């Protein structure tokens, strides 16, 4: 199994201000911006590329139910998760299970860009939120 850094997700309060920082200071390029009101997501997302690396800025759209709002309330804004692209998400999930690593099963989904993703249980990753993802349509 290959594990390649896919992107870093960053929780922010004000998406426009954060986009300006990444564009003007880090010379990033805004690739997409969209809202996801799916249950358990409730966020506005901006995808930027900075020197060949992907950054996802995540701002809550619902301060009551958004996991990003909960994250900011508990830990403040900043790095929310690190995503790893795996060649085959189904095989990676079986491998995790064989090692006793749990996932947050309710986070399994396909996003607007065709990326299949799931979050690992932070209790099993030393507190770091990790995402595993693949792009089945690009294989």
UniProtKB/TrEMBL annotation:
The keyword Isomerase applies. SUPFAM superfamilies: Glyoxalase/Bleomycin resistance protein/Dihydroxybiphenyl dioxygenase (SSF54593). InterPro entries: Glyas_Bleomycin-R_OHBP_Dase, MeMalonyl-CoA_epimerase, MMCE/EMCE_epimerase, VOC_core. One of its GO terms (molecular function) is methylmalonyl-CoA epimerase activity. Its EC number is 5.1.99.1. Residues 4-135 form the VOC domain. Belongs to the methylmalonyl-CoA epimerase family. This is Methylmalonyl-CoA/ethylmalonyl-CoA epimerase. The lineage of its organism: Bacteria, Bacillati, Bacillota, Bacilli, Bacillales.
């Amino acid at each position: 199994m290959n594990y390649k850094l896919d992107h870093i997700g960053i929780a922010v309060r004000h998406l426009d201000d954060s986009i300006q920082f990444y564009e003007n200071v880090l010379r990033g390029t805004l690739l997409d911006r969209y809202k996801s009101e799916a249950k358990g997501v409730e966020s506005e997302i901006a995808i930027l590329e900075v020197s060949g690396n992907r950054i996802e800025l995540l701002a809550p759209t619902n301060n009551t139910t958004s996991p990003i709002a909960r994250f900011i309330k508990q830990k403040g804004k900043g790095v929310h998760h690190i995503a790893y692209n795996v060649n085959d998400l189904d095989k990676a999930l079986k491998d995790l299970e064989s090692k006793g690593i749990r996932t947050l099963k309710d986070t399994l989904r396909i996003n607007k860009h065709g990326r299949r993703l799931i979050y690992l249980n932070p209790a099993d990753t030393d507190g770091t939120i990790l995402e595993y993802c693949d792009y089945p349509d690009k294989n």
